[in-house]
Amino acid sequence: MTQNTRVYIFSFLISISLFMFSCTDPIESINEEESSSSYNYLPLYIYPYGDEANNITAEIIIETDGSVDLNKIEANIPNLKYNKTRLFMLTQDDCLQSAFSSTWAAINGKPLTNEYFYDIRHVFENDLPPDNYYLGKTLGIEDGTGKEVRFHFTTTVYPEANLTEGYSGMYNAPSIINRGYNENYYRFFMKSFLIWDNVIEMLNYGNSIAFHDVRLSGDDVNNTDLIYNHFIICQDSIRKNLSQRICKVLAEPNGNINYYYSALNYDLIKIMTGQGNAPYILYPFTLDDDLEKEFLKRDFIDPIPLKDYVITKFNKPIDQRECVHIGVHSTGKTWVEFLLWLNDTYGKNGDNSVWMPSLEEYYEYNYYRIHSSITKTIIDNNTVKFTVQLSSQEHFYYPSITLNLEGISVPKIQNLSSNDAIKGMSYANYNQGIMVNIDCRKFLLEHATHYVKQYETKNNTSNKADALYFTNKLKDSPEKTALINRINL
User: Any idea which architecture 83-177+185-361 has in CATH?
Assistant: First the structure.
């Protein structure tokens, strides 16, 4: 059966099922022994992006043992977060369901499938494809202070899917839950596009979104004014469905340069990436501008030859070492194996040298690095304060940096504290000083609490790993201790 045939069958079944269950109330969960089909329309948890902090003043106060010359301590923000020496980015086009059930799932230790697809509600209800399997670990890096940071990537979205002929309602297509039913697996056939539920959960885990195609056809696809107008239509839908988050990244579709020209005129799009048209090759260790409105080059390379490509690029001297930015459409087993290889070679189970952020996260980090100011204030002979003014643009969602402090080491620190703007913090020795990772996301505690509650409700190994992952992002506090105790009950 071809992929298109599966899509048509799935769409037909959706229509029939919607008619049969139109008088049925949505339910939150299904009893373990039941084998009934249902739709779950209840809203998912989503981080409150529309209320994120901007232009943050972060303060770090260090009390020393008296043996440190405070005048000699110098501060800087390194080129890459966590002081990594290699940069890898992945942008997944066409708003495909595999971005969730393959790419996101592999990175976050969730079930994988080689033949089928699933949604987040299938995970919640433990209604999974028959061939599901697990990698047995998450994929990412260690941040230099002992904390896990998972890989992040960019997925494109298509908010106008509901307006496209032949795809009516598909972006909001419900997840059919029928645990235990194995006569057929139509509910696990590929949807035409990602649904909002899955996009929401990917964003909750730190990934980001990008514009791609808009709903135009014929000669209109080259009309920059029409493309611009559709960006605005799409942006409105994104705001409504993603907790007032906006999209500020473009992944050029089909090599159509007119999308780039339209994006140049659309203020909310800050960074673009494309294939043949994109002239900008990113060298992160020689970069001295903020990248606003730059058109970054990416490559489409199959995962098997991609390994040699990565090795070649990553083995160059650091000042000649470019970012490896890869575009992909659908992902499956070979891409899962590539991400596993990246983790085992350059990630936390390898030499721990790579940082894999989304393009949006990298853009924001580099913007902070270029535009932020750092002020040192000596309070007394033993105490020094560093004030970092995180200068941002509107609609920034990753207020998190690494700060290097040269001229001091961990054994000489009696206490390191921060102001309330900093919600997550850790530090460790680095070179001739220390590195301090700070996270100023406003609702970091509430975010961790959600995943602890989810673990308490869905008590399994993967949910426990998530609860610990998000809780460990917090700085030390009674609230963090309380969450850790709940997880370890």
Answer: Alpha-Beta Barrel (3.20)
